[in-house]
Amino acid sequence: MTTESAVLVLEDGTRYTGRAYGARGRTLGEAVFATGMSGYQETLSDPSYAGQIVVMTAPHIGNTGMNDEDLESRRLWVAGYVVRDPSRVVSNFRAQRSLDDDLVANGIVGISGIDTRALTRRIRDAGAMRAGIFSGEEAALDADEQLEIVRSAADMRGLNLSAEVSTLEGYVVPAVGEKIGNLAVLDLGVKSSTLRYLAERGFEVHVLPQSATIDDVRAIDPVAAFYSNGPGDPGASDAHVELLQGILRDELPFFGICFGNQLFGRALGFGTYKLPFGHRGINQPVLDKATGRVEITSQNHGFAVEAPIDDVIESPAGFGRVEVSHFSLNDQVVEGLRALDIPAFSVQYHPEAASGPHDSNYLFDRFRDLVLERRRQRDEQPTTPAENPEENA
User: Fold this and answer.
1) Active-site residue, selected from the candidate residues 206, 279, 326, 350
2) Fewer CB in a 10 Å sphere around the end CB: N or C, the chain?
3) Cα 218 vs. chain centroid, distance in angstroms?
4) Which residues hold L-glutamine (predicted)?
5) CA distance 83 to 106
6) Boundaries of CATH 3.40.50.880 in the chain?
7) Is 65 annotated as a binding residue?
8) Does pLDDT of 196 surpass 60?
9) Any binding-site annotation on 48?
10) Binding residue per annotation — 25?
11) Sign of the torsion angle spanned by Cα atoms 130, 136, 137, 140
């Protein structure tokens, strides 16, 4: 284990000195904490964490190593990584390399050996804030200079990161089993497990870049549309909101998760706001209002939809009645939306939860059933008979 020094600097001037971990150098981002006890590989490769320095509250990280099978995307996305005790050995039959190997290969600057519980309490009390990790030659910079560098970094508010994480070219994931139809998936930072679960429900999944237009969506003749998770401020994604409003006007069934939930809220006419420190981890309790069931969910979001959790209200954008379907039991934050007059719903959490829990996996079935029901309704609609020219003579 290295003895090279590193320092984590928060924008409020708080400093934590530890050991260099992963790549050496300087990295800047928003410091957030993730409360999962497992799934560090899925966290690191989740595009929703782009731009964030992730603090792991679990003290021991890296013992099962890394493998290619569990990666959620093409690379590691976190801006920086903070752990207390990185494992000195890898002990798992599926491991192909160490966590440190992948951090170095992906250029992820990290820090270890600090009191992550104290840091978590600081973020919880003061809120997520800009931060920087400095190691190697950067660790020797003057403390005031390091703080100035951190304070000059971009703020997550108003930041659009979709182009950074989205695919540049569209691609198709074939349906598994009997095909229901083509599904338009807007890649705002989609994870591979999400695409796999959709394909297993019979959708031929057409993954579109975040720059897609309504004409691009219509060109694949979809039976439904899906918005993925992703990083950034939903208030900075006007084009995606306009696209979604076009999809809803076309009466396509819609399902959105995480960032997609926030954009669905905006498309319906609601506002969004930044949470003090967000929800991140795989142990977030959510209440399903329809069933009264409590689900333990996987989450990663720093923004939320602003809507009343108790009432059925009219969509300010003219899409009929809407209700909050799920909310957080920790702080009553909106965790799901359901439109009552159009075939569309969303949740704020990640129902694919590759590293667990799987309480919410049924939502993929609910989406499939919604699409099939919509198809049945259309098939049963009576056709308008053609006018008889002789009768109108």
Assistant:
1) 350
2) C
3) 25
4) 48, 230, 232, 259, 262, 300, 302-303
5) 17
6) 162-375
7) no
8) yes
9) yes
10) no
11) positive
Query: Hey, what are 350's tokens?
Result: 């990640």
In the chain, CATH 3.50.30.20 sits at 5-151
Question: Which residue matches tokens 């820090």?
Answer: 111
In angstroms, the CA 200 to CA 343 distance is: 21
User: 122: which DSSP letter?
Assistant: H
Please report which confidence band the pLDDT of residue 282 belongs to, taking 50, 70 and 90 as the band edges.
confident
In order of 76, 147, 174, 312, the CA distances from 327 in angstroms are: 30, 37, 34, 14
Region of 383 please: left (phi>0), alpha (psi -120 to 50) or beta. Answer: beta
Candidates 85, 39, 35, 27; CA nearest to 66 is: 39
CATH match for 162-375 among 3.30.1700.10, 3.90.550.10, 3.40.50.300, 3.40.50.880:
3.40.50.880
pLDDT average, residue stretch 362-367:
94
Comparing C-alpha atoms, which of 130, 105, 113, 88 is closest to residue 22? Answer: 105
Q: How would DSSP label each residue in 144-166?
A: HHHHHHHHTSPPSTT---HHHHS
Options 30, 323, 335, 352, the catalytic residue: 352
In this structure, what token pair is assigned to residue 242? 């306009």
Closest CA to 337 of 258, 277, 284: 258
What confidence score (pLDDT) does residue 392 get? Answer: 45
- Identify whether 206 is a catalytic site residue: no
pLDDT at 301 over 70: yes
- What CATH number does the domain located at 5-151 have? 3.50.30.20
- Is 303 within any annotated ligand binding site? yes
138 catalytically annotated = no
Taking the whole predicted model, whether its pTM rises above 0.85 is answered as: yes
CB 141 within 8 A of CB 211: no
The catalytic position among 258, 301, 323, 326 is 258
